[in-house]
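Minutes, methods subgroup
Present: GH (chair), OT, SY

1. OT presented the first of two proteins processed in the latest run. Sequence and structure tokens recorded below as shown on screen.
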Amino acid sequence: MNKLLASALLLLGSACGQSQALHTLRIKTPADLQHYFEYTGKDIPLVSGHRGGPMKDYPENCIETMQHTLTFTPATFEIDPHLTKDSMIVLMHDATLDRTTTGKGKVIDYTLAELKQLYLKDLEGHVTPYRIPTLGEAIIWAKGKTVLILDYKDVPLAMTARTIQQHHAAAWVMLTVHNATQARFYYDFDKEAMFEAFVKTPGALAEYEAASIPWSHIMAYIGPDDKPVNKTMQDLLHARKVMCMISSAPTYDKLEKPEDRANAYRAIIQHGNDMIEADRAAEAAEAIRSLAPAKSDKQSFFTRVK
């Protein structure tokens, strides 16, 4: 790590409030990551911050936002890598800058140095003091704190795989895969790769099995709706020791009343799911906190550090 990046991360640690205790995931090896996501029936419900879990004054796809969330709850974070003009990888959900930054136009039309001059906006459009992070900066920050889940945007699969390999980050970086073909590519590249896999139907499940992707390497996204038909997929996946996740970002996060959102988050877990991907990560975590089992072997993965 060069001196400039090291200095930047040191300043970031100070700005993020390192004096506050963080709820972290103690995952040190790829085997730990596989074990954590192995369904046992006595697992501790967990949230994943969609787009890094933005909230008021804290933008999406921002390291400071993720760190702030960890002061409330342990969490994983789904983030969105995009390519710059000079083939660097930054965190940005949209292909354009207008909604979430002080810039305009396409991400791909700017160099990293140019993007670093911009500021991020929060969900209400307020300009914050935070800058666009690179994927590398996020990976370095996340080690020992959380698990990052990389969605697929415009970064070539091979480039994403090489970036994780260069950082020796297979223990704390997962890959979103929309189908078995993508999973097979990553698995051929690195047999330790762990996936958040779209497995919404029995047909999709069969495709992962036909591609010989080990279920020990998969946490399954089964859709955005909590509905009775999900039980079919829950039973199939739980029988293979795979955790199931619902994303509330496009559905229940949008409910107007906090009590309605809390009831929806609790229902997701009570109806047999194991994780919630939420824009409102801290709020969802608070709602489901009481649903954790009294005893769980997974407790050893959770800790608080300053």
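2. SY then presented the second protein from the same run.
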Amino acid sequence: MVSYSYVQEKVNYGYGKCALKIGILTNVYRASNGINPLDPLNNVGQVYLSQNVSWNYMKANKFGNLIWQLVVDRTTLEPYDFLQNEQFTFYVDEMEPIVPTNGIECNRMVSLIRPNQTYSAGNNSYGGFDSTNIIQILQNCPVGILQATGKRNKNDFSLPLDTGEPAYIVYIPALPDVEPRIGDLMDDDRGVRIALTSVEKTSLGFRCLAVSVQV
């Protein structure tokens, strides 16, 4: 009878030996929520890491891909840990048994907020977005953002020379107490604001669709 725990131990050992030879020293961060995950207090150690998009190391990465295969001893890792070195920042996926570990490349630092207005029957005060009444879901959190392909939405003015509003795919780690919702607003380190229009939870974390909104 096959002992999967024994096989997993051997797999981890093999990846660890490879990473020791070809990888670079990488910091590991483990966050209990989405607020400042890379705070030094969340550092739980270091591992050697090498990343690739092809196991024979004969392919370079291409546009539209943030999912890498990680050569790392994951014995001390947990799902959705962050790995950061001078080249990359990744978050690891759920780490399925036996199979290689995936890492999602984080190319942006973001904050995610949720409007927290409440309403009651009868007359109400101004009901638009109130920046003083929000729920902070993420703050200074690494995520992966790609431009979505396909038709762009027209803006509200629809003038002849207007460009369409860009759309995005956003990969968010499934950290404790982090549950993105449609309508949440995300600001990245470029000053771009987007609104989530679709949220899907997968073994790689949350995959969200979003559209650009006016600040």
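Chair's summary of item 2: The chain has a mean pLDDT of 88.
Next meeting: continue with the remaining queue.
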